[in-house]
Specification:
Elements lengths: L5 E8 L4 H15 L5 H12 L4 E9 L6 H10 L4 E4 L4 H10 L9 E3 L6 H12 L5 E5 H10 L1 H10 L2 E5 L3 H15 L4 E4 L5 H6 L2 E5 L6 H5 L2 E3 L4 H41 L10 H19 L7 H6 L18 H21 L1
Parallel strand pairs: 3-6, 4-5, 5-6, 7-8, 8-9
Antiparallel strand pairs: 1-2
Helix pairs in contact: 1-2, 3-11, 6-7, 7-8, 11-12
């Protein structure tokens, strides 16, 4: 069921005596009151109870995708937009959804980041992923948190080089943390798309938030900057309306700069001719009227300014790439990994010698 992309759930039962329940409750209370390693102790007590269960049934819930999800993701990928999927599903279900929704193309391979519990394991997995940088990354929330804790810069650089990233078992805090890390390290705007209440923190942390009105409610839609009803509307919102807004704002800023330069140059020449006297060339009302009229006409003309039609913009999403800045690719981090590995070897050897 998980390979088919279903949300699976196993239901079981266990009959406890009163003494067994009393002992379990006492150990659970002590674990919750522990000062150190509280989560590990609570998980250990609960796992001791989850033994010898009688299997009752299995459930599989299908996540039916909305219409045109696959073409929308392919269009965003062709437009040069990197797409990350942050979900609370388990690893198998998240990988199946990524493949079925065409987030990961058929020509790409998947690199599953193993469950790590120490810094050395995280370092070895990052080295393995570095050798397969062209593969899509699938990582769980606990492994993601450990990598960010010890290798924040290296992990973000490697993940940004990957064509697609899938983070499963993510809490709302993890989602917002990933968005902030992308903003901090890439220095690029981040757009977050969500449809549930657990996506509110991620939407608020992003530069632009898109909320989808769905069956999970309107929490994401109310917290977002833009509200849509279908996921496929993202393509038109970004490729058509976003592109026009960017180009019109850029043209308007050039008009405003040109207007200011004209006024400044005329005032500078006038002051130079009259020995830099503190006299204005034009009265205040004339300056305000000139600035208003000169800027008003371009504003009204830019409202209907279109270089291509909507059909052409959606048919050729590569036009969206013209708006992106041409920046250098991130520096290779192979040397830093090697230095870190040598440092760890030296520290381990030094520890052995001391002990």
């Amino acid at each position: 069921m998980a390979r088919e992309g279903l949300r699976t759930l196993v239901v079981g039962k266990k009959v406890l005596t009163e003494e067994q329940y009393t002992g379990f409750e006492t150990r659970l209370r002590q674990a919750r009151l522990s000062v150190t390693d509280r989560e590990e102790q609570v998980a250990g007590v609960i796992s001791s109870l989850e033994e010898g269960l009688q299997l009752l049934c299995l459930t599989g819930v299908e996540d039916q995708l909305q219409s045109d999800v696959r073409p929308t993701l392919e269009l965003l990928r062709n437009a040069g937009i990197r797409v990350w999927m942050l979900t609370g599903d388990k690893l198998e279900t998240a990988a199946s959804i990524a493949v079925s929704s065409r987030l990961v193309s058929r020509a790409q391979t998947l690199f599953t980041f193993k469950q790590v519990s120490s810094r050395s394991e995280a370092h070895s997995e990052l080295n393995g992923f570095r050798r397969k940088s062209e593969s899509a990354l699938i990582i769980s929330g606990s492994s993601l948190e450990l990598c960010i804790k010890h290798y924040e810069q290296e992990f973000i650089e490697l993940a940004c080089q990957s064509p697609a990233v899938v983070c499963c078992r993510c809490s709302p805090t993890h989602k917002a943390q990933v968005v902030r890390l992308l903003q901090q390290h890439t220095k690029r705007p981040v757009c977050a798309v969500g449809d549930g209440g657990n996506d509110v923190s991620m939407i608020q942390a992003a530069n632009v938030g898109l909320g989808i009105v769905g069956k999970e409610g309107k929490q994401a839609s109310l917290a977002a900057d833009f509200s849509i009803t279908q996921f496929r509307h993202i393509s038109r919102l970004l490729v058509w309306h976003g592109r026009n807004s960017y180009k019109r704002s850029a043209n308007l800023s050039q008009f405003v700069i040109h207007r200011g330069l004209i006024i400044s140059v005329m005032q500078a020449v006038f002051s130079a001719v009259f020995y830099f006297a503190a006299v204005a060339l034009y009265e205040g009302i004339l300056m305000v009227g000139y600035a208003t009229v000169y800027t008003m006409a371009p504003v009204f003309s830019l409202v209907l300014d279109e270089d291509v039609s909507p059909d052409i913009a959606l048919m050729y999403p590569e036009l969206y790439r013209d708006l992106m800045k041409v920046c250098r690719p991130p520096a290779p981090i192979r040397n830093s990994f090697h230095k870190q590995e040598e440092y760890e070897k030296e520290s381990d050897a030094y520890t052995v010698q001391v002990m």
